[in-house]
Specification:
By secondary structure, this protein is of the alpha/beta class. The protein has 2 domains: 143 residues, P-loop containing nucleotide triphosphate hydrolases (Rossmann fold); 160 residues, Helicase, Ruva Protein, domain 3, CATH 1.10.8. The protein is 41% helix and 11% strand. The protein has 14 helices and 11 strands. The strands form 4 sheets. Strands 2-5-8-1-9 form a 5-stranded parallel β-sheet. The protein has a two-stranded antiparallel sheet with strand order 3-4. The chain is elongated, with a radius of gyration of 22 Å. The structure holds adenosine-5'-triphosphate and magnesium ion (MG).
């Protein structure tokens, strides 16, 4: 499977969401960043090596493929995988079988490979720097994560999510954003996508001093014309991959309780429930509009409201 999208748009988040929602969830999710590995290291990192395979190989080492057995191997920045290593990688993808460096024994694994990149792989294929067969193999299922500017309705949802997650860093109570601050965030194009939004909220939490995050607490880029002109948050969301709505983490402003919030991992149910609450809040409780925003049927929304006991 291949996930593409701009830097900071949430590709790894989507990969983790797919893993957590799958039957592989009890098994490891192993992430490898191809850009961080030198060509000589890649092979032993991915496939492991036997003791004495090369100078410095003092012990046998298990590679990431083996470590991810029965789970998911997330291959980040796959466009950086050196051409010379792509052939072996393709063979392993097809056969789920390899030898450790310096070893002769075939090792069989059962691994779902999810690759991600912000590079234009078809252009790399044309330029001869990415193998065409590997591209087709990876892109059997291709998910495109839209940039944050293409899904402006996610901006308030994510901003609240990060506020709840991060506000326990400071001692004062913070209830939300001023209307002007929220409007400014919704009007900005966010070239750095969700990562930039997260950093902006964190900065505002640290720099601000009131019970609301104000325009003045936001980074100057929001007002200096970087990024494209405003995109109104009322615009219908761009068509997102089916997995996205469940992963977009939204939160409702609840009573301030730093201890309870402190970085607790959220389940998919929590994420979905919070997404529904945020959609209902942003539509003033209008269920038909909230259902449209969430891209689900109204009857599905009613079922979920009952199931999650929202508003009761
Ligand atoms: N839907 C989301 N809900 C909550 N947090 C998100 C969401 N999408 C992205 N994030 C957060 O934004 C940051 C960037 O996300 P992520 O690392 O998944 O992006 P990426 O597309 O892999 O970026 P890069 O191309 O730079 O590797 C992370 O801190 C991540 O937790
Ligand atoms: Mg990433």
């Amino acid at each position: 499977m291949l996930i593409t999208g701009q830097s900071g748009s949430g590709k790894e988040m989507v990969a983790r969401g797919i893993h957590q929602a799958s039957k592989r969830t009890g098994h490891p999710f192993v992430a490898v960043n191809c850009a961080a590995l030198t060509e000589s290291l890649i092979e032993s990192e991915l496939f492991g090596h036997e003791k004495g395979a090369f100078t410095g190989a003092t012990d046998r080492k298990i590679g990431r493929f083996e470590a991810a057995n029965h789970g998911t191997l997330f291959l980040d920045e796959v466009g950086e995988l050196p051409l010379g290593r792509q052939t072996k990688f393709l063979r392993v993808l097809e056969e789920q079988c390899f030898e450790r460096v310096g070893g002769t024994k075939s090792i069989h694994v059962n691994v779902r490979v999810v690759a991600a990149t912000n590079r234009d792989l078809p252009a790399m294929v044309k330029a001869g720097t990415f193998r065409e067969d590997l591209y087709y193999r990876l892109s059997v299922i291709h998910t495109i994560v839209p940039s944050l500017g293409e899904r402006p309705t996610d901006i308030p949802i994510l901003a609240h999510h990060f506020l709840l997650r991060l506000r326990s860093q400071v001692a004062r109570n913070i209830d939300g954003f001023s209307r002007d601050a929220m409007n400014a965030m919704c009007a900005y194009r966010w070239p750095g996508n969700v990562r930039e939004l997260r950093n902006a909220v964190e900065r505002a939490i640290v720099l601000g001093d009131g019970n609301q995050l104000e325009v003045a607490d936001l980074p100057p880029e929001l007002f200096t014309g970087s990024g494209d002109p405003a995109v109104a948050p009322a615009v219908a969301p761009a068509v997102a991959p089916a997995v996205a709505p469940a992963i977009v983490a939204a939160t409702a402003p609840v009573a301030h309780s730093p201890a309870a919030e402190a970085q607790a991992p959220m389940t998919l149910r929590d994420l979905e429930k919070n997404g529904i609450i945020a959609a209902l809040q942003s539509t003033g409780g209008n269920k038909a509009r909230a259902a449209a925003l969430l891209q689900i049927d109204r009857s599905t929304l009613y079922k979920k409201i009952k199931d999650y006991e929202i508003g009761s």
